[in-house]
Design goal:
Length: about 140
């Protein structure tokens, strides 16, 4: 039905729910799953001097997160692959949408992170950035 499902995960505990939904849908529809984890980069400074880049996690930690997710899906009988990317935090939604198109996903699954109103105002929400632009069906997992 979907063919390929793109699943965007982060390092929060809520990603387990996202992976549960992906597993169930992939098995029910005989779809392949591609796990995507984007390392959000925070660029500090840069206007007057050298910019400092702050990462939420190391490349190794990001890779292990994806490997664990792929291994879990594979053990459940799902054909799964995965990748990690780095991008500034403000372009994460755009990067996910680009990956949907690149892999030809028929479904995008991601979690909804609950920021407070003030945090959402300043840092935005990845799911909000995607919901009106998704080129395929979208499943948001609370």
């Amino acid at each position: 039905m979907y063919g390929k499902i793109l699943v965007a995960i982060d390092s929060t505990p809520e990603s387990a729910k996202v992976l549960d939904q992906a597993r169930g849908l992939a098995l029910a529809t005989d779809s392949q799953v591609h796990i995507l984890h984007i390392q959000g980069l925070e660029v500090l400074g840069g206007l007057i001097g050298a910019a400092a880049v702050v990462e939420d996690e190391t490349e190794q930690e990001a890779g292990q997160l994806v490997k664990t997710a792929v291994d879990g899906l594979t053990a459940a009988g799902v054909t799964a692959t995965g990748s990690t990317l780095e991008t500034p935090r403000e372009t994460i939604a755009d990067e996910i949408l680009a990956q949907v198109k690149e892999i030809g996903a028929g479904l995008l699954i991601l979690g909804t992170r609950r920021h407070g109103a003030l945090a959402t105002l300043f840092v935005g929400s990845v799911s909000d950035g995607i919901v009106h632009q998704a080129p395929c069906p979208l499943l948001l997992v609370p």
